[in-house]
Amino acid sequence: MSVGEFATFSPVPSSAGGGRAGAWRAAAGTAWHNTLRERAESAEPGAQFEVPLQGRLPHGRWTVELQGRLDQLAPRNGSVVLREIKTISQSLPRPEDELAEEYPEYFRQLAAYLRLAEFGTLAAGKPVAGELVFVDFAAGVVQTVPMASQAARIL
């Protein structure tokens, strides 16, 4: 299962339509991903982009096999930061709890990547942290929400 499918999974049927974005929103998201990649390349030597991740997450008697593509991985002071970029149409900054309530699937996606990193070799034994980078695509305001210890609880 892809990490994105896992993050949006619900055992309860939803009346919501497909994804959040149409073609023009996807283009805006791609443009912002590229802009933030350029910023990371100049500010964080050694950063990696579109990093494939896969692994198994055990939970009780279940094992979930996941694969996905992390937006950014950056070394930082002896640790590794996993970063997911999400473009939204709401103004920023906003309280983190409001973002978590409005976009729970984004938090689950990053939590899944963090758990995969814990069980895999991606971080090579280094401490791992995560960041959700929200971008108001219209105004260009960026808000970073850190995530570390709550990943297991979120999943």
Description:
The chain has 155 residues and is α+β, with helices and mostly antiparallel strands. It has helices at 3-8, 23-43, 96-102, 104-119, 151-154; strands at 48-59, 62-76, 79-88, 128-136, 141-147. It has a five-stranded mixed beta sheet with strand order 1-2-3-4-5, with helices on both faces. The chain is globular and about 45 Å long. The mean pLDDT is 86.
Q: Which helices and strands, and how do they pair?
A:
Elements: H1 3-8, H2 23-43, E1 48-59, E2 62-76, E3 79-88, H3 96-102, H4 104-119, E4 128-136, E5 141-147, H5 151-154
Helix pairs in contact: 3-4
Q: Summarize the biggest pleated sheet.
A: 5 strands, mixed
Query: Helix-strand pattern, N to C?
Result: HHEEEHHEEH
Content-based structural category: alpha+beta
- What order do the strands of the largest sheet run in, or round the barrel if closed? 1-2-3-4-5
Task: Please give the radius of gyration in angstroms.
Answer: 15 Å
Count of alpha and pi helical runs:
5
Which regions have little confidence, pLDDT < 50, spanning 5+ residues? none
Overall geometric form: globular
Total count of strands: 5
End-to-end C-alpha gap: 15 Å
Strand residues, percent: 25-35%
The overall pLDDT, averaged over residues, is 86
The share of residues in helices is: 25-40%
